[in-house]
Amino acid sequence: MFEMSRTTFRRFTLAVVVIFVGLVATGGWVRVSESGLGCPTWPKCTGQSIVATGSYHSWVEFSNRSLITLIGVLIGVIVLGAIRSRPRRREHVVLAIGLLVGYVGEAVLGGVTVLEKLAPALVASHLVLALLLLSDAVVLHWFASRPPGVPGRFGFPKLRPRVPPRVLAAARVLAALFWVTVVLGTVVTGTGPYSGNPGTPRFGFSLLSVVETHGASGLLLGGCAVATLVLLAATGAPRDIRRRMWVAAALLVAQGALGLSVYFTHFRAGIIEAHVVGVALLLVAFMAYTLSLNEILPAEPHGSDDAQRVAVSLPGSVAVDRGDLAPAEGVGFEPTEARASRLFKSRAFVRSAIPPGPTEATAPPLASSPPRRGARAAAPRPSASVARARPAHGALCCGRRGRRSRPSVDGAGL
User: Fold this and answer.
1) Which residues have a Cβ under 8 Å from the Cβ of 96 and sit 6 or more positions away?
2) Its pTM surpasses 0.70
3) Are 294 and 161 in contact (CB under 8 A)?
C-alpha cells in the first residue's frame, strides 16, 4: 500500500509551491523574450519531435513545458498521498484534487493559447490560473504543516481567529485589491509591446490609460497595506502576524518600484521579468499573512467526549471544563493575556472550591505492628503540658547550698 508520512507530504507540497513560482518566472520570460511560439504545436514542440529543435526560442518554450510536466508528476504524488494517508484528512484530499483539476485546465489552456497564436485574453487567463493554483498550493502546504483539527464545514477544520474582526475584514479588502491589481497588470501586458511573438494582436486600449489604472490600483493596495500595519499595531496582534505583514509590505514596495522602472525605462524586458516574479512572491507573502490570522481548532483526543475535563497544571488548582478555555460568550476574539487572566480569576481556580482533605482529628489512626520479641519497649513520650521548657539564657540560679538548681516547670527560678 502506498502511504506517505506527514513530513514527506509537507515537503512535497512545499516543492510544488516553489516550482509554481518558477513556472510563473519561466512563463514571464517566454513572454518578454518573444518565445511564445518557439514550439508552434501542442503537445509536441514541433511536428516531428516533442523536444526542442535547437533554437533559442524553442528551448525557452520547452523549458516552460518541462516545468509544467514536473509539476504534474508532483501533483499526482500529492493526490495519491492525500487519498491513501491514514487517517485521511478531508482538506488534503480536496485541495490536492483541486490542484489536479486546475493543472489539467492550465495545460489545456496553454495548448489552446498556442493554437490560437497567443491571443492576449488567453495569455492573461493563463497567468491568472497559474496564480490561483499557486494559492491552492500555499493553502495545502499550510494545512499539511499543522495537526488535524475539529471537522467543520465541508470537512475542513474549524478555524479560530487570532485577531479582532476588523483585522480579518482588512485582510479581505487587501486580497480583493491584490487580485484587481493583478488582472489590470495582465491587461497592461496584453496592451504593451511584449506579446510573446512578433505580429500577435494586442488589446485595443490606450497603453497610458491602462498603465495609470494599474498604478492607481497599486497605490490603493499600498495604502491598504499601510492601514493594515497600523491596525495590527493598534490591536496588539501577535508578533508573527505583524512580521509576515511587514514582509508582504516590503515586497509590495519593491513591486511598486519595479513597476515605475518598467514605465520610465520604456518597458525593459529584464525589469518586466522581475516584476512578474515579484507578483508570485507577493502572492505567497500575502497568503502566508492571511493564513496566519487564524489557527486550527485542535481536535479532541481519541476516545474523549464533550464531558471530558482537562486538568490545569497549577499548584492547588482543580480540573476545569474545556469550555472554560474558550473565549467569553459573544466575543469572537480574545487576546491570549486576557484569556489567561480571565481563566485564572474564574471560580475554577478559587481554592475554596477544593474539597478539604482529612485533618489530624478525623484521620484514622495508623495501624501499629506488634513489637518484636526481645525488643526494648519504647518509653512513652511526655505530653506537651508536662514537658520541661528550655530555660532562657541566664534563667538558671543558684540554690541554698551554692549549687545550681533546675528551673521549675513554668521556667521561673526558685
Assistant:
1) 75, 78, 79, 81, 82, 83, 140
2) yes
3) yes
